[in-house]
Write a structure and sequence with these properties.
Elements lengths: L1 H38 L11 H5 L3 E2 L4 E5 L2 E10 L6 E9 L7 E5 L5 H10 L3 E3 L9 E5 L4 H7 L2 H10 L4 E4 L2 E5 L6 H29 L5
Antiparallel strand pairs: 1-3, 2-3, 3-4, 4-9, 5-7, 5-8, 6-7, 8-9
Helix pairs in contact: 5-6
């Protein structure tokens, strides 16, 4: 009898988790759809392939939101870890850049982000580099071997300060994209905060992007 009761409790607990996750996902879709409509953005569109995420084998779902922030196109969506019955959906924001950036990951020393931990663990062959000033005490930066100079040109003190203060899960630069994990969106206030953090990062990066655009003679968005 005791074992049967135990099995029933386990099954009921599993059902409760499934129901909870389903309700949470529906709420995310409702919040993001309402937010997108209010800003004239679109939903359920295809998400571009970020080279680093593709190399790790992550798959992605259609965008919860596709829009434009400060002239840069962005997508808020979920990528999928694992397969079969143990899939984990991780919310992410990806921003398109008008130039190709170095392959770069920056995260806090105490980072717990899913995406950044995968790269720091050696999944993409990035190497730890030294940062200027005392930022080494707070941030870890990884780049491709031999690309330290180009990487440090992106990591100005202003950019590193924004990363330290606003991106607890780290930020990945890959190809012409910036990608970072975000909280599971349950309120419009969370979306406000995500977009404000992205705005601060883009503002800090604009000087570097402008220099690269001028040197490459590439037209900005």
């Amino acid at each position: 009898m005791g074992f049967a009761v135990f099995i029933i409790i386990i099954v009921l607990a599993m059902i409760a988790v499934v129901v909870f996750n389903s309700k949470r996902q529906k709420n995310t879709e409702t919040v993001t759809a309402t937010y997108a409509k209010a800003h004239g953005w679109t939903v359920n569109t295809a998400v571009p392939s970020v080279p680093a995420l593709e190399k790790l084998g992550y798959t992605k779902r259609n965008a919860l939101i596709e829009g434009t922030l400060d002239g840069f196109q962005f997508w808020i969506y979920e990528y999928v870890l694992n397969g079969g019955r143990n899939k984990v959906y991780v919310p992410n924001m990806t921003i398109a850049l008008p130039v190709t950036s170095p392959e770069l990951l920056v995260m806090r020393n105490n980072n717990l982000g899913t995406l950044s931990n995968a790269f720091a663990a050696g999944g993409y062959g990035l190497q730890l580099i030294q940062l200027e000033g005392d930022f080494n005490q707070h941030l870890l930066a990884y780049c491709e071997a031999g690309n330290q100079v180009a990487t440090l040109e992106y990591l100005t003190p202003n950019v590193m300060a924004v990363l330290e203060d606003n991106f607890p899960n780290g930020v990945l630069f890959s190809g012409q994209y910036i990608a970072f994990d975000i909280p599971r969106l349950q309120t419009s206030q969370q979306l406000d905060q995500v977009l404000q953090s992205a705005h601060l990062l883009l503002s800090a990066l604009k000087e570097r992007l402008s220099v690269q655009l001028n040197s490459n003679s590439i037209r900005s968005y």
